[in-house]
Write a structure and sequence with these properties.
CATH architecture of the largest domain: 2-Layer Sandwich
Shape: elongated
Number of domains: 2
Number of strands: 18
Number of helices: 13
Largest sheet: 8 strands, mixed
CATH class of the largest domain: Alpha Beta
Structural class: alpha+beta
Distance between the termini: 52 Å
CATH superfamily of the largest domain: Bira Bifunctional Protein, Domain 2
Helix content: 25-40%
RNA sequence: GGAGAGGUGGCUGAGUGGUCGAAAGCGACGGAUUGCUAAUCCGUUAUAGGGCAGGUAACUCCCUAUCGAGGGUUCGAAUCCCUCCCUCUCCGCCA
């Protein structure tokens, strides 16, 4: 959610900056500016009436305390004024509430303002490639897709997952399960070494949490919901971990907070029916290790760079070729002020595929989730800045390892960094 | 699932209709005292919104709201009534 002050200070500038995302925000913002002015005027009026009512209440109390008879004409007159005021008060309150509700309903529909550094562009074609790392492997045979490799090696079984659940689920078997577990442990160990405190959060969260990080109300149809219990299956660890400090005022000395968390993630993938129907790329349930940071506003850019570096480190340790791209204004997610994607090389697809998305939300999420901090010597509170990124999507990492480390005979070498976890050199039948 | 208890400021905890945004204690901060520490004393110590109040500003002042949430009674609600949510304890069941 945006700072309402942006609307008052310089609406033209706000329109200009939001429009870089594509679309035209002029109308909504003008509407909001008008609503905001009306709302404040209405609130002032309502407050005045409330003050008068409080005054009457006090006067009655004072007289009665001094022993004035309850039937005294003066007291009676005061009471009558109080009764008269009630109708006005109710009317003013309704008006104020309606305006506030309309404002509160409209404001969260605005996306975050892209940071000035973000390249202007329409869509993913105008994303900026920041750097390449590693070299895609050269095969003297046709590289096999990870799902074929995986099934032939007995590491995964899609048919049985469909039998047990639905399409877009997988069952990992034997060394497949082991490799998944190894990746999770490896990633968490790396992040812990970099100062992230490991969290194992609930996988079901309430509506307030989903709203706090912005999954609701916009993306309700993308999430799995337990209707009987007001609980949602988390689409990412970002939700429970960011909401850990919802409605809290942190002390400035607590910042920055670094958390890493492994969780399963559940997504309905509504509207992606034709895409990535095979393999581990797009499933209803997948594993992810997430990095989440809370910091002071002035540090969020530097923390963002470090977060990206920490995610990259995992790929480097695994010696998987990847590239880093910066999303342009047109491709930026709703809540993000700036975002870098890490894309890993997938030989069978002969291209880079997203494996991590590292976003700086600035105060956008913090405002929604009411995440603040306070410096003892300063008056008032400030919203923290939140950042998060995958470190990494485990299933996609699994896929990348199979494809990049495959041999002609269909076996797969285990990356050096994973050997202590897998305790094997090669995955074979 | 059955029975009961309870939700008050950073924490503990008083408050059952009238200057209660809320006693007291703890903690924290500022000051005094002190060779140092400790102790003692004094003071400060919630958040948010609004203001056509003052200041370049940091900020100050005023009004309003908030004692789990929403509604009701009343001139007036932390306090009475209703609904909902949540937490805890005991019993049962269960990983």
């Amino acid at each position: 959610m945006l700072d309402p002050k942006l609307l008052r200070d310089d609406p033209a500038k706000l329109i200009e900056r939001l429009n870089t995302r594509g679309g035209d925000f002029a109308e909504v913002i003008e509407q909001l500016v008008a609503l905001d002015a009306q709302r404040r005027a209405s609130q002032t009026e309502f407050n005045r009436a409330q003050a008068e009512g409080n005054q009457i209440g006090k006067q009655v109390g004072e007289r009665l305390r001094r022993g004035t008879d309850a039937g005294d004409p003066e007291v009676f007159a005061l009471k009558q004024r109080g009764i008269d005021l009630k109708a006005t008060l109710a009317q003013l309150q309704d008006q104020e509430r309606e305006l506030a509700e309309r404002f509160a309903a409209l404001l969260p529909t605005l996306p975050n303002v892209p940071r000035p550094e973000v390249p202007i562009g329409k869509d993913e074609n105008e994303n900026r490639e920041m750097r390449l790392w590693g070299t895609p492997p050269v095969f003297d045979f046709e590289p096999v897709a990870h799902w074929d490799l995986g099934e032939r090696l007995g590491l995964m079984n899609f048919a049985r997952a469909t039998l047990v659940a639905q399409a877009r689920f997988v069952t990992l078997v034997g060394d497949g399960a082991l490799l998944e577990r190894a990746l999770i442990a490896f990633m968490l160990d790396r992040h812990r070494a970099h100062g992230y405190l490991e969290i194992l959060p609930p996988y079901l969260v309430n509506t307030a949490s989903m709203t706090g990080t912005g999954q609701l109300p916009k993306f309700a149809e993308d999430s799995f919901r337990c209707r009987d219990d007001d609980l949602w299956l988390i689409p990412t660890a970002e939700v429970p971990v960011t909401n850990l400090y919802r409605d809290e005022i942190l002390t400035d000395t607590q910042l920055p907070i670094y958390h890493c968390a492994f969780t399963p993630c559940f997504r309905r993938e509504a509207g992606s029916y034709g895409r990535d129907t095979r393999g581990l790329i797009r499933l209803h349930q997948f594993h992810k290790v997430e990095l989440v940071k809370f910091c002071r506003p002035e540090h969020s850019s530097a923390e963002h760079e470090k977060l990206v570096a920490d995610a990259e480190d995992v790929l480097q340790q695994l010696e998987l070729p990847y590239r880093v791209i910066e999303l342009c204004t047109g491709d930026l997610g709703f809540a993000a002020a700036r975002c870098f994607d890490l894309e890993v090389w997938l030989p069978s697809q002969n291209r880079y595929r997203e494996i991590s998305s590292c976003s700086n939300f600035a105060d956008f999420q913090a405002r929604r989730a009411n995440l603040r901090f306070k410096a003892p010597d300063k008056k008032g509170t400030e919203f923290v800045h939140t950042l998060n990124g995958s470190g990494l999507a485990v299933g996609r990492t699994f896929a990348a390892i199979l494809e990049n480390y495959q041999n002609r005979d269909g076996t797969v070498r285990v990356p050096e960094a994973l050997k202590p976890y897998v305790r094997k050199d090669v995955l074979s039948r």
